[in-house]
Amino acid sequence: MVNDKKIYCLAVDDEPPALQVIEKYISAVKILELKASVNNAVDALSILQHNKIDLIFLDIQMPQLLGTDLMRSLISPPKVIFTTAFRKYAVEGFDLDAVDYLLKPISFDRFLKAVNKVMRLNITANENVLSFKIQQTNNAAESFIYLRADRMNIKVSFEDILFIEGLKDYIKVVTKEKTIVTKQSISSIEETLSPHLFIRVHRSFIVSLNKIESYTSDLIQIGKYEIPISRSYRHEVETALKK
C-alpha cells in the first residue's frame, strides 16, 4: 500500500456468515481497521453518529432499512462498498457514488480490488501513482487520464473517449480524433473510470454512455463502430441505458 494511514471500517450485514467473511478479510489487510460490525442498518446509523468511519462494507437487502436507504439518509456519508447477492442493485448502488459493488459470495481477490479503489481515491493528486485526476478549470470540472504510448504520457479527456477495447495485455482507446494503444489491462483502466460516464458491455469493451447513438440487446452503435454486448453484461447494460 502507498498510504500507511488507517482506514476505519464498518461492516453491515444481516447474514452472520457473510458478516464473518468481511470481518476476516478486513483483518487480513493491514491498512484496514474494523471499528464495528452490526447486522442491521439502524445500528449502523448509530455507529456512524458516534464514530469516525472512513469506509462501510454495506449489505443492501436487510430488514427494517435497506443499505441504499441508509446511504440516502446520510448528509456526509463515508465511502461505501456495497455487498449483496443481487446483481440488480448494481446501478442503484453506483448512483449513490459507491466505490464498488461486491457480488456474494465475495472472493478475497475481489475484496482487495475494491479496497485498492478506495486507496486510489485517498491518494493525493501530487503522487505519481495516481493516474486519474480531476481538476477545476474556470469553475468547470475537467476529467482526464494519462496513457503511456510511444514513450510519452498522453493526456486524454474522458469527454473525447468513444470506447475502449481490451487486447490481451493491451488496451485500445478510441477517441474522436485518434486511437491510442497502451500496455494496460481493461480491468485496471475500468477501475479509474466513473460508472456515471462509462459502462462495461463485454469482457473486451467499455463504452462511453454519452456517445451511444443506438443499441439493441446484442450491440451498441457509436458512430461507425458496432460494439457487441455480451450475455453476461446484458442485464446491467439494458438497465443503465433505460434509466
Report the CATH topology name of the largest domain.
Rossmann fold
Q: Tally the helices.
A: 7
Q: At the fourth CATH level, what is the homologous superfamily of the largest domain?
A: Response regulator
CATH architecture of the largest domain: 3-Layer(aba) Sandwich
Strand order of the largest sheet: 2-1-3-4-5
How does the helix and strand content classify structurally? alpha/beta
- Could you report the average pLDDT, rounded to the nearest whole number? 83
Q: How many DSSP E strands?
A: 16
Strand-and-helix sequence, N→C?
Answer: EHEHEHEHEHEEEEEEHEEEEEH
Give the overall shape: globular
Relative strand content:
35-45%
- Largest sheet geometry: 5 strands, parallel
Helix content: 25-40%
Describe this entry's structure for a reader.
- By secondary structure, the protein is α/β, with parallel strands linked by helices.
- It has 2 domains: 116 residues, Rossmann fold; 83 residues, OB fold (Dihydrolipoamide Acetyltransferase, E2P).
- Helix content is 26%, strand content 36%.
- It is built from 7 helices and 16 strands.
- Strands 2-1-3-4-5 form a 5-stranded parallel sheet, sandwiched between helices. A 5-stranded antiparallel sheet has the order 11-10-9-13-12.
- The radius of gyration is 19 Å and the shape is globular.
- About 8% of the residues have low confidence.
